Amino acid sequence: FYCSWHLPTPTYIPNTFNVTVLHGSKIMVCEKDPAVKNRCHIRYMHLFSTVKYKVSISVSNALGHNATAITFDEFTIVKPDPPENVVARPVPSNPRRLEVTWQTPSTWPDPESFPLKFFLRYRPLILDQWQHVELSDGTAHTITDAYAGKEYIIQVAAKDNEIGTWSDWSVAAHATPWTEEPRHLTTEAQAPETTTSTTSSLAPPPTTKICD
């Protein structure tokens, strides 16, 4: 698991943080996250342990020193990362359906042994109210009550089947239900028939008169 922290108000001067993690009386190693500021990672020594953890953090700067601590059970902090690769697609010839698929978060250690359940929310962009569906298993769902022709926004959250809390919402997917292509009217114009007759008149041959 990881611990993160922040100051309630910015100090605008350099701060030094010190984090101590205890599992019962045993001191745990807290490895600083190289990519995220003010976060460190702790490896579980005993999975499903009933021994409480205690995390203490102190901060010091040129103005003084302060500290705080929290105590918790392992089971209460289980929170998966959001589901990944959420995709929504229209269903051909179904103007009120959207097919939604997603993947278990890659950081979840063993989906077979520790299955997740999912919570899906969706709404058309023209409305503010979400509709919700809770799913006990699987990584796909078909929305059957979408408004035809309206763009939808869809998000998914995950949670361990037994313990912990829901993840944050996934990155939103957008999709619009299938709509029938408009039919273009075609008009065949037929030109009226015209007849052309050619009349030729043959002039009589000229006559020659010889006068004396």
UniProtKB/TrEMBL annotation:
Residues 187-202 have a biased composition (Low complexity). It comes from the Eukaryota. One of its GO terms (cellular component) is ciliary neurotrophic factor receptor complex. One of its GO terms (biological process) is positive regulation of cell population proliferation. Keywords: Cell membrane, Disulfide bond, Glycoprotein, GPI-anchor, Lipoprotein, Membrane, Receptor, Repeat, Signal. Residues 203-212 have a biased composition (Pro residues). This is Ciliary neurotrophic factor receptor. It comes from Ovis aries.
